[in-house]
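Input record (one chain):
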Amino acid sequence: MGMGDMLVSNDVSAQLVTHSLGSCVGIAIYDPIAKVGGLLHAMLPDSTINRDRAASRPFMFVDTGMPAMFHAAYELGGSKLRMAVKFCGGAQFLDEKKIFQIGKRNVEATFAMLARNAVKVAASETGGHESRTVRLDLTNGKFTMEITGKEIVTL
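The corresponding structure, as predicted from the sequence alone:
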């Protein structure tokens, strides 16, 4: 799946993958009983910067993409109470003077939205300066992160 995109599935043979998480965040949800999972590749924290873009591409933004992903999972039988949430990304990327801090703001927006909705984060790996690829295996909910040249990490 690409940047600013989201997938939700209950196909236990599926593996959801997104690449090139620089300052973006890859947010994974998984319900182990319903075997429903989702993956969001959010590029920006706040949709209020461009309401028209948010209307046409809600998954670009943490604040519109995350609720849409949860609701899509509920439609497939997922439950908020059983949902494990893990995420990666939020690197300091292409902003050497730290003016925009998109990565940091994406991470803060993700934590804040989850806290407001009483959803706990099971695991996260954020910050740094490297791009990540993440995978969610719907067979078992295994969420892995890969950085080029390093070992694959399971969160």
